[in-house]
Amino acid sequence: MLVSLTMLFIACSGGAKRSDAITLDAGIERKIDSVMAGMTLEEKVGQMTQLALDVIGEGGNVYYSHEPFRVNHAMLDTVIGTYKVGSILNTSNNRARTTEVWEEIVRTIQQRALQETGIPVLYGIDSNHGTTYTAGETLFPQAIGMAATFNVELMEEGSRISAYETRASNIPWTFNPTMDLGRDARWPRQWESYGEDAYLNAQMAVASVKGFQGSDRNRVGSHSVAACVKHYMGYGVPVSGKDRTPATISESELREKHFEPFRASIVEGGALSLMANSGIVNGVSTHADYRLLTEWVKEDLNFDGVIVSDWADVQNLLSRDRIAASYKEAVKMAINAGIDLVMEPYNTAFCPTLVELVNEGAVSMNRINDAVRRVLRLKYRLGLFEKPYWSALEYPDFGCAESEAIAKAAADESITLLKNDEGILPLPGNARILVAGSNAHSMRTLNGGWSYSWQGEKVEEFAQDYNTIYEALQEKFGADNVRYEPGVTYKMDGTYDQENEPEISKAVAAARGVDYIVLCLGENSYCETPGNLDELMLSENQTRLALALQETGKPVILVLNEGRPRLIREIESGAKAVLQLYLPGNFGGDALADILAGDVNPSGKLPYTYPKYEQGLITYDHKPSQNIDGRMEGAYDYGAQTSVQYPFGYGLSYTTFRYDNLTVSQKDFAPGELLTVTVEVTNSGVVAGKETVMLFSSDLVASLSPDVRRLRAFQKVMLEPGETKTVTMPLPANDLAFVNAQGKWTLEEGEFMLQVGTQVETIRCKETKVWDTPSR
Ligand code: BGC
What is the separation, in whole angstroms, between the first and last Cα of the chain? Predict the structure, then answer.
């Protein structure tokens, strides 16, 4: 029965990469045929509709429900009985629920759906860094921290645990992972994905999809969920830096970088769904972009899953982007572009509108059938027809100690040591410490947005059992040795960027009698548009606090707890040590304490370039002209210098590593060949440590100005003092190709430089190849 219909195609990237198969299950397809044969147009359109939970909540209005949450049966009758809605999303009143409450909610919905249409509802939720909306779940570092671990096994394991805990909440579908390239430090969602690099994003996204979905995409097990790769694509580089504003991306960059994580997670990871970018790329609203949605994904990748819209983004074609003159026109544009399921989230008008469009011939029945087939396929793949709801008791490992240990390990490996002058860290066990700063005593700032609520403002209510930085340092160094005086605090009931009147002198006074100051600065929690900013510099109060504490002469250890790299150039030189925590989750305080005490050796590496100046935003894979000594003959200087605070991939350890003997299997190569790169790495220090070995390539001359460097492979290895390991990294020649100005993959004859650590080697491509296919 299985795999009688196989669509085979060659995985795009790298000659050596396997030929992957996306497999349709003939049994499932037959069942879909028979269900669809009996469906009315209204029922089909219902399957393409997704509404928010509050629409069917008792009391309030469609946006809010009374507490405790109860399903309003009259509204459920309207939503399921009248409109035959096939999907529900989100939590109610923007707060986390227990697994028991989730069970009750989903059971009620499913029973009504089965009675009405016989088709179970597809419930979807954001499980960002854990099961965001379930009380007691395991919260990992946010994606930017997971990227900093450079540990794909940890990523996969983290997603596996999140999948289990999402299923424990009776929900089989998550809107994750997020793989928007975070190439602009100003963007408020930079921390939701894996940083600035396409390869790192792709590796992490594939690992996450596998962790969520397990190994059989046609039979997603009861401990796994369907992933939704988002936000397709180019969402992370808005020209203004503000969320949901237009991006301008060259055709070459679009395919070569932004598309890559999506390609990889669909082709190599088998992702079952995809969410469209809310924004505008090169003038085209993605929700109306037939080329990107239908041609690039459904046709070129043979994607057989569901494309879901983002929140109210069909409506946005009308009210925000103004490319449609009416709601009806907006619906027509989005469905004809390739959107299969519309996240409305409050507007049932979508259903009659789409029915009307079909009846008028403006949307074809074929398009409807294709969309409905995809939605039903996902429901079958998830096993919802056999088991639409279940008991939370079937998930005894929800939030268990083993899962929390993985979250702690991820926090340990994410924290990135950026400065350690005179080896001031680790601190002696009897150190007397002042813990100061706005982020010193807050679970909310450790977790960030998408934690128990959208903006993270309810974290303290749910995360009382975990340690803030101050609490963790008290446990580690002894309560008598650790004192707390924040100096600056956030306005917890204000917007994320508001602070209370600072009390800097109090913090300065508290520094008397201590040996070290651990100064915890950064940002309060936020996500999406409410996290927009006008100034990337760390807040004025926090900067003043840092300068005042540095003036005391006590060594200041600067701890950054922030979603994006806020500029610190005014205070960096006065800090003896700097650690980047990102948003490390519920175990961030403990992980930091272990690192400060030397019980854990830091091994995180920056997944983005840490900028130094507002006008110096740059990525590591920039063009030569962006940072060049361009002095020419004569009086004129055409140099462009861009200084950064810390480069991509940077991160110190308490030990040192030496690189030797870089070898490449062949110096001359042709397109399609597989090169093998080996290098010896030695722990040349006195403590054990983990090192991320990164392979970079530079195309020395190309017909389009080449990127100065590109990450092509990485491996994280553990080394005891004095130990040497030989690290082997396959490098498919085709991975060295770029996309030319006509949008075609191109590998050009000429020299490439490879670099691993301090080692470099030059190799040569013998012939040029230009691909006519969208993949290489
Ligand atoms: C976000 C998505 C999210 C969706 C559902 C939107 O505002 O852009 O990332 O999945 O809401 O919560």
Answer: 33
Pick from 101, 384, 9: which is nearest to 224 by CA? 384
Ligand 1 in contact with 192 (CB < 6 A)?
Answer: no
Read off the pLDDT of residues 168-214 as tens digits, 9 standing for 90 and up: 999 999 999 999 999 999 999 999 999 999 999 999 999 999 999 99
Residue 310 catalytic? Answer: yes
By CB atoms closer than 10 A (0-12, 13-18, 19+), residue 574 is middle
Quick check: 430 pLDDT over 80? Answer: yes
Report residue 5's pLDDT band, with 50, 70 and 90 as the boundaries: very low
Residue of 199, 307, 182, 194 whose CA lies nearest to 260: 199
Structure tokens given for 41: 């147009």
Nearest to 668 by CA among 765, 573, 529: 765
Q: Is the per-residue pLDDT at 17 higher than 90?
A: no
453 lines ligand 1 (CB under 6 A): no
Q: Give the distance (Å) from ligand 1 centre to CA of residue 244.
A: 11
Please state the φ and ψ torsions of residue 662, each to the nearest 5 degrees: -70, 125
Q: Is pLDDT of 630 > 70? A: no
DSSP state, 298?
Answer: I
List of long-range contacts for 27-34, beta carbons under 8 Å, 24+ apart: 27/1, 27/2, 28/218, 28/377, 28/380, 28/381, 29/5, 29/377, 31/380, 31/385, 32/373, 32/376, 32/377, 32/380
Q: Dihedrals φ, ψ of 523, to 5°? A: -135, 155
Q: What SS3 class is residue 248?
A: coil
The active-site residue, picked from 197, 310, 313, 621, is 310
Three-state secondary-structure class, residue 383: coil
The residues pairing with 330 across neighbouring beta strands, listed in sequence order, are: none
Residues in the chain: 776
The pick from 175, 189, 307 for probing ligand 1's pocket by mutation, whose C-beta has the most ligand atoms within 8 angstroms, reads: 175
CA distance 26 to 34: 12
Question: Residue 629 — pLDDT band, cuts 50, 70, 90?
Answer: confident
List Cα–Cα distances, 198 to 182, 193, 241, in angstroms: 10, 11, 19
Protein residue whose Cα sits closest to atom 10 of ligand 1: 175
Separation between Cα atoms, residue 196 and residue 648, nearest integer Å: 8
Query: CA 202 to CA 269: how far, in whole Å?
Result: 10
**Ligand 1 and 707: CB distance under 6 A:** no
Whole-Å CA distances, 276 to 232, 234, 280, 281, 734: 5, 10, 11, 12, 28
Spatial separation of the C-alpha atoms in residues 88 and 231, rounded to whole Å: 19
> How many angstroms separate the CA atoms of 560 and 415, rounded?
10
Both tokens of residue 458? 């309810």
Residue 484 host element (H or E): strand 482-484
CA of 311 relative to ligand 1 center, distance in Å: 6
* Residue 28 φ/ψ, nearest 5 degrees: -65, -45
* 467 close to 516: Cβ distance less than 8 angstroms: no
Q: What is the pLDDT of residues 297-321, one digit of tens each?
A: 999 999 999 999 999 999 999 999 9
pLDDT 10s digits, 645-657: 999 999 999 999 9
